[in-house]
Amino acid sequence: MPLWNRSYIHNIQVTFSEELGMQTSARYPKGYGILGDVVHSHIFQTVALLAMEPPVTLDGEDVRHEKVKVLKSIRKLGSSDVILGHSEADSGSNFKDMENLMPTYFGAVLHIDNARWDGVPFLIKAGRGLKKNRVEIRIQFRRVPGNIYHKDGGGHMQDLVTNELILRDVPDEAILIRINNKIPGLGMNLEASELNLLYKDKYNVDVTDSYEQLLHDVIDGDNHLFMRSDEVEAAWNILSPVLSELDNNNATLEHYEFGSKGPDKAGNLWAKHGVKWLDDL
């Protein structure tokens, strides 16, 4: 808890990346594409669970009260904080209906206006037809002031990464801590290293699939992972400016190649907030 605030955390990155494409025109006829598929539900639920204040109890309603408070604290998204992209459903697609393109990529920066997270950008990358499957959260901590290790033993500048806490769901469930570690030897050279807890190595059990967990919760009457009506409304309210642009055909969809890292302009959005996305290296 002492570290879980704006004083120590620089940014938080949420990634939903899939190699597969999708026929958005068939699945989402209203034109919202990946926004209607995973962003307003899966992604915003992830952000809410991560950023919420501690609930009074673990009862489903107490958890959902706190999630709603976070969602209502997130600013509506402006065009300067959003990148929408489109890629064909697969590498051999002949889909050329330019008037009915729907987003298969959503990049955005969320701002949470409350005492804990004011000034901490939550960067979202959700896309299909990208170069790898990955679902994870990265918490990047602030740089240490007065860093005495900015030069190696030879006097050369070292571009050291900041400490990170990584919560990964895909491809392998894991909790990772990324720190700078001295390379063995006589010099004073540092490199980023990961301390890892891989579930498949640590636990000799089958890790429950996400939908298995949801079905179990339905049977058990546990509703804390399900969206309440005011949560749904708050999530759509954040996206309302973007949806309005799509409804009026005023939104610009950046094309990206199937199997790439996504639209090139997304890098400008991350750079504006001083973030270099690890997947883009």
From TrEMBL:
Transmembrane segments: none annotated. It holds the Pfam family G6PD_C. The keyword Magnesium does not apply. The keyword DNA damage does not apply. One of its GO terms (biological process) is glucose metabolic process. One of its GO terms (molecular function) is NADP binding. It comes from the Eukaryota. Keywords: Carbohydrate metabolism, NADP. Residues 2-277 form the Glucose-6-phosphate dehydrogenase C-terminal domain. PANTHER family: GLUCOSE-6-PHOSPHATE 1-DEHYDROGENASE G6PD, INACTIVE GLUCOSE-6-PHOSPHATE 1-DEHYDROGENASE 4, CHLOROPLASTIC. This is Glucose-6-phosphate 1-dehydrogenase.
